[in-house]
Amino acid sequence: MNAVVLIDTLLLILVTITAVAIIEVRNLYASVMLTSVYSLLMALVWVNMHSMDVAFTEAAVGGGISTILLIGTLVHTAREERPIKARVHWKALLVTAVTGAALIYGTFDMPRFGDPHAPIHHFRVPEMMAQTVGFANGTKGKQAPPEGFDAREYRSFNGRVADIPDDPTDTAWRETSVLAQDGIIVPKVIGHAAHAPVHDDAGHHPHPADDFNGHVPNSVTSLLAAYRGYDTMFETTVIFTAGISLIMLLRRPRRQGEAQVGAPMVDQAVLRVVTKMSVPFILLFGLYVITHGELGPGGGFQGGVVIACGFILYALIFGRAALYRVLPPPVIDVLTGLGVLLYSGTGAACLLLGGQFLDYSMLNRLSPGDGESLGMTLVEYGVGITVSMVMLNIFNQLAEEQPT
Amino acid sequence: MLWNEIVTTVLLGLGCVVSLTGALGLLRMPDFYTRLHTAGKTDSLGQFLILLGLVFVTPDLLTQIKLVGVAMILMIAAPTATHAITKAAHLNDLRPWTKRDPGGEP
Amino acid sequence: MSWVYLATAIALLIGLFIILIRAIIGPTVYDRILATNALGTKTILFVTLLDYISGRTEFIDMAIVYALISFITTIAILKFAEKGRLD
Amino acid sequence: MTHVLGIYNYWIYVLLMMIGLYGVIAKPNLIKQAIALGLFQTGIFLYYISMAVIDDGTAPVWFVDPQDPGQKFMGPYDNPLPHVLILTAIVVSVSVLAVALALIINIRRAYGTIEADQIEVMDQQDRLAEFRAGATLDAADAAELAGVGGHHD
């Protein structure tokens, strides 16, 4: 039993207890607080499973924004759940028990936790991990691998070197490669980046069959922004749409001369001073998270949420009127759209430069790796701007006085 | 074990003891203000001891600076939050528990 | 050395468990807020220790985010308890 | 024991999903239902991330040894693909939550309550009143109201 499994086992017990408490606590306010606790614990589980970016997002989104949004709703609704006669809903319990039993029956066919032979670890991703960028410290871009590097060694999880031909165009082995010892079919793949030319004669950057088109050190970011670039773009659009829906559902036209009412906490000296000290730091840190996203954990979603949290802290202490002086609502609205425009504009720029949509390597012909890095940074900034402004917009709509 | 590992072990152990004491106090104390008393103080000291302990085994300077940064943020944020909670509770007329008046909780 | 980190992590987990009980049963709202805040601090320490257990100490940024987010959440919860509104 | 710990994570994911499902079905409070939906989603996240773990693996970010920066660590990395899927799923889930909460606020504005069963009763009473006042109804409404009216009478 290794450390990961031990901590995982213990943490998940805590998570389950919290989940039951969230559902069963009568007081909605307590339930919201426990939701924040639940998100923090869940983020610990992600960290323990080495999923740094997800933990980052869960902590920022689940622990921060979701809690604030739920509290913002409690302001306009009731704090207490209406007492119901029966504590246990037997029909619901029966339904969940049957469904749960069926799902648990399904888990017996799953590969065990952390099994290196599981199919997920043998398809496509080993290939990505063997791509040859980022060898020298702090440099990016496609480079020659160091002396003695064999992309095939990485793939042989149990010390077995697969018999992969050196010629990258020879793909016949893919269909027939079977590790007969264990009876496990391993789709062996080849580290083509070590072999493929950076440019062909016409100056085009050819796409090998399985190019992930992303070669920054954080493979999560390169998957997010390059391999699944379209998906992330439309995910940003989903968030944008959510912001628009919130405006349509909750914003009401402000009458002329209507005073901004609010309850700022400026009378609390300690909070005021600490907030004034920390807000610039939080905003700067959010920008760092966005920019650093391709080198370490972080990225547009996380950084955007951190920036939004910084502004929300300012609004909590100094009142929403003060926030509107810094960021007027029209500016927030414009920036919301600008982020999506930056994302799709980066894709269109690649198109105009002669590549495919979102083929970042076109942004720098001389060094495609640097072009990819630049494109990913631009895209992350687009995501970050949209996410932060939408979250801020949602907060503003929820915090606003609602007509009853 | 090298000297820095011994220092780290001692500091982490101390931090654990302090943190656990605070947690236990949070559970066992009779009313809000006494719980605040244990939790607020031990939180700050415990996190400082553990983060300081980790500094000694960190090889590179950047991570050491980040660790100290985390400790600094916590040193500012945790007492601020505790102060604000106390103030809010006090303003909302939460009476402290006494032996004479054991019903301090509303 | 990793057993020291692991032992510390387990001790912190026990602490988390105890505080969680207070967060669930806590009779007043302020008890719950206090427990949430204390849980946040313990979580930050736990994240740092997990980085050391896995040997990837460059992920300390996580702890900074946790510290900031936990602070902001506490202030938001508190503001609702005190003023009954968010702006 | 090893076998149990091997699929323990998947059991917990089922448990979390079912806790969420129970909340959605059993609790009439709309905010509670939104929170329970979040729990349900987290169960699915746990399922995905659990699949990504590999024994003795490390985070899928290139590990560069500070002592020897030229050499890249080639040991097993966890699978980054589920991480990416879940990262975007979390952000979408907060968008869903935000829209749900906005709808709940509007429901509260219209009905004065956020309990699903009370809202249902109010809806039925409203339409029953319309029916008795002789309002013209389409076939589906009429059929439903006939059932409701019969039930109440």
Describe the structure.
The complex is a heterotetramer of chains A (404), B (106), C (87) and D (153). By secondary structure, chain A is mainly α. Chain A is built from 14 helices and no strands. Chain A has helices spanning 3-24, 28-48, 52-76, 90-107, 125-129, 151-155, 173-176, 219-227, 229-250, 269-291, 300-318, 320-326, 329-352, 368-399. Chain A is globular and about 70 Å long. The model of chain A is unreliable at 131-146, 149-165 and 170-214 (pLDDT under 50). With 87 residues, chain C is mainly α. Chain C has one domain (2-83). Chain D is an all-alpha fold and 153 residues long. The model of chain D has no long low-confidence stretch (mean pLDDT 82). The interface between A and D is large, with 112 and 89 residues.
Task: Please tag this protein with its features.
heterotetramer; A: mainly alpha; B: 106 residues; mainly alpha; 76% helix; 0% strand
Looking at the structure, what is the overall shape of chain A? Answer: globular
**Structural class by helix and strand composition of chain A:** mainly alpha
Whole-number total of structural domains of chain B: 1
Number of strands of chain B: 0
Radius of gyration of chain A: 25 Å
Global outline of chain B: elongated
How many DSSP-defined strands of chain A? Answer: 0
| Quaternary structure of the protein | heterotetramer
Helix content of chain A: 55-70%
The parts of chain A where pLDDT drops under 50 for at least 5 residues are 131-146, 149-165, 170-214
Q: Could you state the order of secondary-structure elements of chain A as H and E?
A: HHHHHHHHHHHHHH
Kindly report the average pLDDT value of chain A.
77
Largest sheet composition of chain A: none
**Which residues of chain B sit in consecutive blocks of at least 5 with pLDDT less than 50?**
none
Write the layout of secondary structure elements.
The complex is a heterotetramer of chains A (404), B (106), C (87) and D (153).
Chain A: H1 3-24, H2 28-48, H3 52-76, H4 90-107, H5 125-129, H6 151-155, H7 173-176, H8 219-227, H9 229-250, H10 269-291, H11 300-318, H12 320-326, H13 329-352, H14 368-399
Helix pairs in contact in A: 1-2, 2-3, 3-11, 3-14, 8-9, 8-14, 9-13, 9-14, 10-11, 11-12, 11-14, 13-14
Chain B: H1 3-28, H2 32-55, H3 61-91
Helix pairs in contact in B: 1-2, 2-3
Chain C: H1 2-25, H2 29-54, H3 61-83
